[in-house]
Design a protein that fits this description.
single chain; mainly alpha; 0% strand
Length: 122
């Protein structure tokens, strides 16, 4: 059976009845219960004490926490920078020692030759 020749497969099986979208909104609105939403709305009541004293104190506490958090991050970053600098210095000393050892091996100089040279050139 050739799929391209079958006319039933070329038809779109997903069809809506005519006027479906036109009446959909009306049907949905008709199925909802009639409730007076304006009557159920209540206004939030905040006491004078809350608006006058507690809210500014909360804002002040939040600002204070933000400042402390920022200072903590800054100090941690400074500590990490110092640790990285010390580590870089230690690595550079180790690298210079390794380079000196490699040079001495290449030039076939041992510790006795260095001691002799230093003692003769005082």
């Amino acid at each position: 059976m050739n799929l391209e020749e079958n006319t039933d497969l070329k038809k779109n099986p997903f069809k809506l009845p005519d006027g479906y979208w036109d009446d959909l909104k009306k049907e949905i609105m008709a199925s909802l219960p009639d409730i007076d939403y304006q009557a159920n709305l209540t206004t939030p009541r905040h006491s004078f004490l809350y608006n006058k004293h507690i809210r500014p104190a909360l804002y002040l506490a939040a600002a204070f926490c933000g400042i402390l958090f920022t200072i903590g991050i800054y100090q941690r970053q400074q500590h990490l920078n110092k640790a990285q600098q010390l580590q870089a210095r230690n690595i550079s000393v180790l690298e210079s020692d390794k380079m000196l050892n490699d040079f001495c091996d290449y030039a076939r100089i041992d510790q006795n030759d260095i001691y002799t040279y230093l003692s003769e050139n005082k």
